[in-house]
């Protein structure tokens, strides 16, 4: 009986780690995205208020075009996609881990 409880706690701890990882990387991705849009607005460029699939690509292309002119880090869009990928990976692990 005691061993069954420990196995259940261990399984729940793994799921908690996956859930935490998913939310952490989603928040990091949102922070990166909104820092990109704030940089674009400071350069008086139009930027969307919220996430929209088509506008994310347009926003990142504007950012790439202006990054050298304003001495912005050019790796921010890549960091956004990496954070999004990691959030998705942790979410998939959360759902499909036995």
Written account of the structure:
With 98 residues, the chain is mostly helical. The protein is 82% helix and 0% strand. The chain contains 3 helices and no strands. It has helices at residues 2-42, 53-70, 76-96. Helix 1 (2-42) crosses helix 2 (53-70). It is elongated and about 60 Å long. The chain starts with a helix and ends with a helix. The model has no long low-confidence stretch (mean pLDDT 88).
Blueprint of the fold:
Elements: H1 2-42, H2 53-70, H3 76-96
Helix pairs in contact: 1-2, 1-3
Structural key phrases:
single chain; 98 residues
Instruction: Please provide the ordered H/E string of secondary-structure elements.
Output: HHH
Count of β-strands? 0
Distance between the termini: 20 Å
Q: Write down the oligomeric state.
A: single chain
Compute the gyration radius: what is it?
19 Å
Number of helices: 3
Q: Tell me the structural class.
A: mainly alpha
Overall mean pLDDT: 88
Low-confidence stretches: none
């Amino acid at each position: 009986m005691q061993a069954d409880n420990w196995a259940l706690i261990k399984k729940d701890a793994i799921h908690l780690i996956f859930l935490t990882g998913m939310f952490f990387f989603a928040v990091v991705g949102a922070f990166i995205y909104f820092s990109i849009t704030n940089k674009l607005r400071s350069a008086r460029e139009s930027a969307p208020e919220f996430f929209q699939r088509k506008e994310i690509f347009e926003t990142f292309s504007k950012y790439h075009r202006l990054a050298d002119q304003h001495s912005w880090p050019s790796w921010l869009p890549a960091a956004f996609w990496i954070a999004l990928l990691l959030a998705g990976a942790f979410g998939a692990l959360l759902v499909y881990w036995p």
